[in-house]
Write a structure and sequence with these properties.
Layout: E1 22-24, E2 31-37, E3 40-45, E4 49-53, H1 64-76, E5 81-83, H2 88-96, H3 100-114, H4 126-129, H5 138-150, E6 154-156, E7 165-167, H6 169-175, E8 184-191, H7 199-212, E9 216-218, H8 229-239, E10 240-246, H9 252-263, E11 268-273, E12 290-292, H10 295-309
């Protein structure tokens, strides 16, 4: 019997009932339902979420946990990834660089998303939920649960068949920490063009550069929210220590977000792909933009700019 404080948000988003046509998940190797979907297969896995995969896609063992994290993250955000030989490395990359501190915060954020107040419980299952923390496996995920419990940031329900977890008041204080003056140290808001022909390449390279400098990038389009998107953008810029703004595609929203950040006194690193520099608005063209030609060039130049303009300010 569940505790009286157990609420409907504890219902599992993924079914754990394996239908007769079950097989092995091509990503994590666990039990899953794999159905034909045109030329591809549509997979429904309790651990990895729902995703599509081509017949020629093979997941290397060394990045399987990161691919699982990518598909689960997309599923929890209401998206379905298509796994192909050409994209699995890029999809896995951001989840291979997650620090232990970031993994702990991911566990807290996941539990917070499933509960609504201290004493409200959700059944976290390490064997199913380890991808939400970018963990390698259930054992690593269990270590994080144990640490958070020892630090009194989470607690277990009283003895029941499936013990649930809840955030303590200390846990909620950490997850709902108020922004500090000047933004939260270590947090970066990224403003850019979101078109499919641009975003994936830019996102992966910029994410690598920002994390290499020990900052946590925030990508607004990858965050589910019940708030108006404009309100969330402004709130996240207020939280950020600095902003990376790329003007490729000349999006008015990027100009606005960069201007809002400057008005708050946040440092802005200005970027633009080389083929778009001549199209920059005349009143920003004089600013020192990181002009890049490809993903590798962006990765190197953006990291150097962060180290020169942001880290030296700390």
């Amino acid at each position: 019997m569940l505790p009286s404080a157990w609420n409907s948000s504890g219902e599992e988003p993924l079914s754990e009932t394996i239908p007769p046509e079950n097989t092995r998940c091509p990503v994590c190797g666990g039990s899953a339902t794999v159905l034909p979907s045109g030329f591809n297969s549509f997979c429904k896995c309790p651990t990895c979420g729902h995703f599509r995969i081509t017949p020629t896609t093979k997941i290397p063992t060394e990045i399987a946990h990161a691919v699982s994290a990518a598909t689960r993250e997309a599923h929890d955000q209401g998206r379905t990834l298509n796994l192909e030989p050409a994209n699995i490395t890029d999809l896995a990359a951001p989840h291979l660089r997650t620090t232990v501190a970031e993994k702990l915060d991911k566990v807290l954020a996941y539990l917070a998303s499933k509960t609504v107040y201290p004493g409200s419980y959700y059944v976290v299952k390490a064997g199913r939920d380890y991808p939400v923390a970018d963990a390698h496996d259930a054992e690593e995920f269990g270590v994080y649960l144990g640490y958070l419990d020892a630090e009194k940031l989470i607690s277990e329900a009283p003895a029941i068949d499936d013990a649930g977890h809840t955030l303590t008041v200390r846990g909620w204080e950490r997850i709902q920490a108020q922004p500090r003056p000047g933004g939260e140290p270590g947090r970066c808001f990224v403003a850019c063009w979101l078109a499919d022909e641009f975003y994936p390449e830019f996102r992966n390279a910029a994410d690598q550069a920002i994390r290499a400098c020990s900052y946590l990038p925030f990508w607004i389009n990858e965050t589910r929210t019940n708030e108006g998107i404009s309100d969330r953008v402004l709130a996240e810029i207020r939280r950020a220590e600095f902003v990376v703004a790329d003007f490729t595609g000349q999006r008015q929203s990027v100009y606005f977000e960069a201007g809002f950040a400057r008005g708050l006194g946040r440092p802005v690193i200005w970027c633009c792909r080389q083929d778009g520099v001549q199209g920059l608005h005349f009143d920003t063209r004089h600013l020192g933009h990181v002009a890049w030609k490809d993903a590798v060039d962006l990765r190197v130049k953006l990291e150097a700019s962060i180290r020169a303009n942001i880290i030296t300010r700390a």
